[in-house]
Write a structure and sequence with these properties.
The protein is α+β, with helices and mostly antiparallel strands. About 30% of the residues lie in helices and about 40% in strands. The protein contains three helices and seven strands; from the N terminus they run βααββββββα. A hairpin with a 3-residue loop joins strand 5 and strand 6.
Length: about 150
């Protein structure tokens, strides 16, 4: 399996960061490539919960997430699958003295494999996935900043 990850330190308390992360109504503003929720069931974001969402037209397609672990205040792990890959995605929230560190990690395996798949993955796919995780975290930070400005 391949792994990509991204991390950001945000100037917001952990409870605010976590609340925004799990607010599906706000996902279009920060989750890279997210279009809309198709189905949310079985208590998502809790363990055992399922989320099915669709991407924007040139994105991942239909994405299925099944939560395998959820620890309030700390993060969530989910099995993820889309038309091209399957894997495990983890989000972690770590309190800092003046904010919160948020880490995203995706361990994945490409479904359609050819002899060139490892090279294509290394040169193109892995970078695109890492960039997508980074964009999501940067946008999450912008959303939190916008929320803080509204409260002032």
């Amino acid at each position: 399996m391949a792994r990509v990850s991204a991390q950001i330190d945000l100037d917001a308390p952990p409870d605010a960061v976590e609340a925004l992360w799990y607010d599906l109504r706000r996902w279009p503003s920060f989750v890279d490539g997210f279009a809309h929720v198709a189905k949310c069931e079985l208590g998502w974001p809790e363990e055992g919960g399922r989320l099915v969402w669709d991407s924007t037209p040139h994105g991942r397609g239909r994405v299925l997430e099944r939560v395998t672990s959820h620890i309030p205040g700390q993060g969530q792990m989910a099995d993820v699958e889309d038309p091209r890959l399957r894997g495990t995605q983890e989000v972690r929230f770590t309190p800092l003295q003046d904010g919160t560190a948020v880490a995203l990690q995706l361990d994945y395996q490409l479904k359609d494999r050819t002899p060139l798949t490892p090279l294509v993955d290394l040169l193109f796919i892995r970078r695109a996935l890492r960039d997508s995780l980074r964009r999501t975290l940067v946008r999450l930070g912008r959303e939190l900043d916008a929320d803080a400005e509204l409260l002032q």
